[in-house]
Amino acid sequence: MILAAGRGERMRPLTDHTPKPLLPVAGKPLIVHHIERLAAAGFRQLVINHAHLGEQIVAALGDGAAFGVQIRYSAEAPAALETGGGIFQALPLLGAAPFLVINGDIWTDCDLSTLALNADDLAQLVLVNNPPQHPLGDFHLTENGRVLADGTPRLTFSGIGLYRPALFANCQPGAFPLAPLLRTAMANKQVGGQFHCGRWFDIGTPERLAELNQLLRRNENARVEQQ
């Protein structure tokens, strides 16, 4: 599942007429980078939620055939349901097996095929080094791969997670965040994690979008020169 329902307030005015997942990065929409990476990792069935200008996302991506995947959509109206509520609403589309969720407003070179759940876990999270805009981090990752709400050093949740539907067992329809569910599962020792030391960008502002675009353009130019 790709989370694409956010309004993108900090990205205004870019998002006044274009949903944030469709903002171009290195010549293609940000969300297309996700779809291509998911397809390369072996994912074939995707769910995308949307709210603000969501019809543009549906029109741009269609049924996913152009990318070698099948896309279904979870429309949120009249307003976005936050991360937890958005996933909960999409559960009928996601099925009974564990499923991957990735925030639509990040970019990463993380190998999405590496995530795996322990038998008793409800979630497996990808954590990254704390970026300048989030210096205090979110969670602690132990040496044996367990994620805790408390402890140091702290790392930042990347917005990439593998979840069992049972994580949402006691939820009700409506808007609600994901973090409290994760913290409860952590308290019950049901959350594993892995550290991603590669590239990861939180595309929260026009400045960060421009920075990522310049980086990917430089990388592409370097590859062309090497050929």
UniProtKB/TrEMBL annotation:
<protein>
    <submittedName>
        <fullName>Mannose-1-phosphate guanylyltransferase</fullName>
    </submittedName>
</protein>
<keyword id="KW-0808">Transferase</keyword>
<feature type="domain" description="Nucleotidyl transferase">
    <location>
        <begin position="1"/>
        <end position="134"/>
    </location>
</feature>
<dbReference type="GO" id="GO:0016779">
    <property type="term" value="F:nucleotidyltransferase activity"/>
</dbReference>
<dbReference type="Pfam" id="PF00483">
    <property type="entry name" value="NTP_transferase"/>
</dbReference>
<dbReference type="InterPro" id="IPR005835">
    <property type="entry name" value="NTP_transferase_dom"/>
</dbReference>
<dbReference type="InterPro" id="IPR050065">
    <property type="entry name" value="GlmU-like"/>
</dbReference>
<keyword id="KW-0548">Nucleotidyltransferase</keyword>
<dbReference type="InterPro" id="IPR029044">
    <property type="entry name" value="Nucleotide-diphossugar_trans"/>
</dbReference>
<dbReference type="InterPro" id="IPR054790">
    <property type="entry name" value="MurU"/>
</dbReference>
